[in-house]
């Protein structure tokens, strides 16, 4: 008899028990709904907000790129880069969170 095989790949890592529980609930809900495991559901408001932020970021990047071709002064470049940094906001905090039931 062959030994039973475990799961394939590395074990999942979580920042804490609450994150582990949310991940389990998400996997169970998608499985129950018959959806593939890699499906992500996002509210229209969250998606619209993310798209707005990405558009602002793209515009700020284009402004910097245009300015670099125009030999800007140091003050103009600093102002444009400050706008770019401001438009990114805290992108590291833009997490789409699970909708509470």
Report on the structure:
It is a single chain. The protein has 101 residues and is mainly alpha-helical. It has two domains: 13-41; 43-90. Helix content is 55%, strand content 0%. It has helices spanning 17-32, 44-68, 74-88. The longest helix is centred in the middle third of the chain and has 25 residues, at 44-68. The termini are far apart. The relative contact order is 0.10.
Please render the helix and strand layout as text.
Elements: H1 17-32, H2 44-68, H3 74-88
Helix pairs in contact: 2-3
* Rough outline: elongated
Structural class label: mainly alpha
Beta-strand fraction estimate: under 5%
- Described by its quaternary structure, the protein is single chain
- Summarize the amount of helix as a percent range: 55-70%
| Integer-rounded radius of gyration | 22 Å
Keywords:
55% helix, 101 residues, mainly alpha, 2 domains, 3 helices
Task: Write a compact overview of the structure shown.
With 101 residues, this protein is mostly helical. It is built from three helices and no strands.
